[in-house]
Amino acid sequence: MKYLSLENTRLDGRYDVHTHLGRGSYAEIYVARDVLAAPQSPHSQVVIKALNVFLQNDLDLDLERTLVENFQNEAIALDRVRHPNVISRIGHGTAKDLRGTVFHYLALEYLPGGDLAKACRDKKLTLKQALFYIEQVCAGLGFAHKNGIIHRDIKPQNLLLTEDRQTVKIADFGVARISQSDSPITRVGTNIYAPPEHSPMLSGQTGTLVSPKLTPAADIYSLAKTAYVLITCESPRFFANQPISELPFAMRHEFWAKDLVEILQKATQADSAKRHQNVNEFWQDLSRLKRFTEEDSGKLVAQISTSSLYAIPRPHVADGFYPFAPEEAKFNTSRELKTKLDLTPSEIPSNVVKLGADSTIESPSPQPNEIIFDSSQNQPETPAVQPKKTRNFIRTFAVFAILIFLFAGALFATQYYIRNLTASKNTYQSVKGIANTDVNVRSSPTSANDDNIIGVVTAKSTVKIVSEKDNWYEIDVVEQGRVMNEQPNVKRGWVFGKYIDKN
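The structure assignment produced for this chain is given below.
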């Protein structure tokens, strides 16, 4: 087993990786700072989910291909389910760590509020708070089902909160089913939350599924078990692989207890056809509990309400949500990266570089293309070192030839630069664009340091692109998306092109 060497590094010239959060069976999780995002941006910190195939002890080419395909499917699912209550993908890439190991990664939004399992441990939720969170989960999950995505691992640990704990987002689409196909249903998810159709061995004496097709009812089963946890703040372990039939003793006297048990019992039936068939049906039943609120005196009163008001769960939108997905993620296996001759720029692994004590970039080790991994051997492969030239006249001739070549190249480059600079000034036609997030405006097209930051362009600002250079745009600010009194009123500067959508 080999771990990635990513801590205290800069990834792809953009993400400063500082904190390791944990690792699963195939991925490692880090928190990083996006140096291209404005410090006050909701996405100035991101989560880096790095695919590490070497966490599998018995790695072979077929297993690696499966892991890469699943990782890409997670990106596809997140892009298809772009919703305020689903974690957003911000970017992706392929890189080499400090030891030369090639890995793929996803950049996801960072949610520092913790998960709902921790929220229940910290403080018991009221019925009103639990329903507030469940409605948001229903909104995100219903949108996923509408777009052909079945999550397959809904549980409190995969429901993450924003820093103010007002918005919950569904995370971890690593085992999501992208289409409702008739392909074999594999065992996934956590046992006490997973429906019988995720575990054929638990569905009867013969192991035959009641319904051979995976449907949204599978997620509704897991959602009901999760709702039990949020409302009671107790684990549903006594109802593993069976319907919920009662509440904890301390809650059985509540006015709404009988209604809640009936709803959860229906949603956790072993036969998926007997459950709620879509999220809206489940929420319409559960939202009836909103009639009951607890007064200071401890008495329960019925509020004036109509069930139709809650038929469709309402999303809760946090700052920084952007409905459009970034560039599509496409990943190759290690063998494909090694043998393909027509790699696009996004497929060529970039290097991770070490951050020094003063957060400046140090030289990477190893150098580009020195080491790549071959999963068939599970070990780095190092090319043979070229034999050292010893004859002095050959060395002298080589040095002289290199100097001539460099001099000629410098003359050509200077001429080319001057000619294209003049042509670009004469022919570039400015176009308008929209900022898709808060982004720093710099005096020059580089993010190597923060001394050249001259202001901020806010999300949804209208800008005019007057020139381009190396994926950077020189812009004139036409209209700011919102007023920021603490920032200088910048009119022109450079921003990274990924943050501007051209009209």
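Interim note for the steering committee: The longest strand covers residues 15-23. The chain is about 25% helix and 20% strand.
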